[in-house]
Amino acid sequence: MPHISTGEMLREAVRKQTPLGELAKVKMEAGELVPDEVVCGIVKERIAEPDCGGGFILDGFPRTLAQAECLDCLVRGDPRGVPTVLDIRVDPETLVKRTVGRLTCPVCGEIYNVFYRPPKDDEVCDTHGVKLVRRADDNEETFRQRLLAYQNQTMPLIEHYRRSGALVEVEGDGDPPVITQRLFELLGEG
Ligand code: AMP
């Protein structure tokens, strides 16, 4: 299934300096959410593409009640069935280290972390030998704003999806393979 990250789509628009990118850049660097109608528009277009015919994974969407309502509309009566919503729970102190320590290889997209999974050589990809990059919003100050946006605008979605029976909650502490296994077990695919 295609992995659709709204953050990654927005970063791509910023890199390409499109009008969408210009608008998104300011919000992203401030740790604020990009307006609902903009994000809903790009998701609507993306999930209509042929590779989404067998289903898709949305990452970082929906983040507000308005976005959740938009998604509810988009998938209402869909033959692929109702979405499952995953809430990966991580305490804020772990989150800050995962965020400010994150480094990505611009060639293969591999994610390292200076605290949890450092590269063998300082800030260089083990496989490609190129300098790893840090996201513009992965600094402590912007992280605090992003956490506030999450608490104020995204947390209410937990109740929304709990009520509808779509919510699956998973403990997000530990290494990625451990969490992946936990997820598969919860989804009945372990
Ligand atoms: P992420 O890559 O998911 O951490 O998102 C990075 C940033 O992109 C967020 O802090 C927001 O500024 C923006 N963004 C990503 N997804 C959304 C969304 N669903 N709604 C609003 N803004 C978003």
Q: Your description of this structure?
A:
The protein has helices spanning 6-15, 19-29, 36-47, 65-75, 92-100, 140-154, 156-164, 176-186, and strands at residues 3-5, 57-59, 85-89, 102-104, 111-113, 167-171. The chain contains eight helices and six strands. With 190 residues, the protein is α/β, with parallel strands linked by helices. The strands form three sheets. Strands 1-2 form a two-stranded parallel ribbon. It has a two-stranded parallel ribbon with strand order 3-6. It has a two-stranded antiparallel ribbon with strand order 4-5. The structure holds adenosine monophosphate (AMP). Adenosine monophosphate is lined by residues 5-7, 10, 27-28, 31-34, 39, 60-61, 63, 67, 137, 146.
Main pleated sheet = 2 strands, parallel
- The largest sheet has its strands arranged as 1-2
Task: Name the CATH homologous superfamily of the domain at 1-80.
Answer: P-loop containing nucleotide triphosphate hydrolases
Computed over alpha carbons, the radius of gyration is: 17 Å
CATH topology of the domain at 1-80: Rossmann fold
Order of helices and strands: EHHHEHEHEEHHEH
Tell me roughly what share of residues is in helical segments: 40-55%
The CATH architecture designation of the domain at 1-80 is 3-Layer(aba) Sandwich
Strand content: 5-15%
Ligand catalogue? adenosine monophosphate
The global form is globular
Which structural category do the helix and sheet elements fall into?
Answer: alpha/beta
Runs in which pLDDT lies below 50 for 5 or more consecutive residues are: none
Tally of helical runs: 8
CA-CA gap between termini = 17 Å
